[in-house]
Design a protein that fits this description.
single chain, mainly alpha, Four Helix Bundle (Hemerythrin (Met), subunit A), two-stranded parallel ribbon, 11 helices, 75% helix
């Protein structure tokens, strides 16, 4: 009998949904350039409910928020200097573009505000889960520890997200931001693995497919970081007015590796799906193949359809779902002898 209540298990799944919503909302913020739609935090233009008209914004807000931003960048520079990144810190501190506040834009303001609302839901969901465990399941030390670590990480992620924007989207900060998001998703999936009966059922595979699952998982994780670099390059090319017909020759090695590995994973999962239908018939492997097919389709459309922002969001969402499914699988797969 499962020692955890159905309500607790269900709430953990909802917390995972909220985390995914933060990822996709953050992607919308990124593609629409809405990161500074709310120049202050946790309020937005010093209001809990954002303004809908320029007449509602505080006077001299650009000068006031620019100073706050400068102080944040200064502190962040001091932190990364401790880790041997003094050159990067000096570059950030002396970049005049970081102190330029944008004009009020109601669409960007509310895009960023909705992103913060999803972050609020996700963060408070993890907070509730931690206290829930502390009150009723504290004897499970591993579960208590994992929920506490994830709570700290999502709080750090919220702070670091503001740094990513304040530092004018320095490429390595975006990659690190994604890295922490994947860790949070992974830890929440592990918590679900500990409490949900459906996730304790083993998936018995041959040694060949066992290795393929791990290989696909590793390649997918690498792919997500390469995709971040490609996305940065596409944004830069778009700002320079360079069209899609010139993207391939301008994106460089990360793009070619990213594209080649995508087809490699497709081939591996197609083979895995074929073996699964002949022998095992696991639904999770079928879903893996379907999600990857959609992911690759969004990648192809990204290069040919004039809907860059929307397709980028879909591309990231399905990549994250694919990562999540593979992460669940590596915990559940077993060799026949195990």
């Amino acid at each position: 009998m499962n020692p955890f209540s159905r309500r607790f298990v269900r709430f953990n799944w909802w917390a995972l949904v909220f985390i995914f919503l933060v990822v996709i909302a953050g992607s919308f913020v990124r593609t629409t350039g809405s990161g500074m739609g709310c120049p202050d935090w946790p309020k937005c233009f010093e209001q809990w409910v954002p303004p809908t008209d320029s007449s509602q914004i505080p006077p001299n807000y650009k000068e006031r928020f620019s100073q706050q931003r400068a102080e944040k960048v200064e502190k962040f520079g001091d932190i990364i200097s401790v880790f041997g990144m003094s050159d990067v810190a000096e570059q950030l501190k002396n970049d005049p573009n970081l102190l330029k506040e944008e004009d009020f834009n109601v669409s960007k303001t509310w895009t960023e505000y909705i992103n913060r609302l999803f972050g609020f839901l996700a963060g408070n969901s993890l907070l509730i889960i931690f206290f829930w465990i502390a009150l009723y399941y504290r004897k499970n030390k591993r579960l208590l520890l994992m929920s506490f670590v994830n709570l700290i990480l999502i709080a750090f992620q919220a702070w670091f997200g503001s740094i990513v924007v304040a530092s004018n989207l320095v490429p390595w900060t975006i990659t690190l931001h994604l890295f922490f998001a994947l860790i949070i998703i992974g830890l929440q999936l592990y918590v679900i693995r500990l409490v949900s009966p459906s996730q304790t059922q083993h998936i018995h595979l041959s040694k060949e497919l066992y290795i393929l699952v791990w290989l696909c998982f590793v390649i997918t994780a690498v792919q997500m970081f390469l995709g971040t670099q490609v996305r940065e390059s596409i944004d830069a090319l778009t700002r320079l007015g360079i069209g899609r017909e010139q993207w391939t020759e301008s994106l460089g090695l990360p793009f070619f590796i990213h594209r080649s590995f995508s087809w490699l994973v497709l081939g591996l999962l197609a083979y895995m799906a074929y073996k699964n239908e002949r022998t095992y018939k696991y639904k999770i492997i079928r879903w893996l193949f379907i999600i990857l097919a959609i992911e690759l389709l969004s990648g192809v459309l990204l290069a040919h359809i004039d809907m860059i922002g929307l397709i980028q969001n879909a591309h990231l969402l399905f990549a994250t779902i694919l990562f999540g499914i593979l992460f669940m699988m590596v915990f559940r797969i077993k060799l026949p002898s195990q």
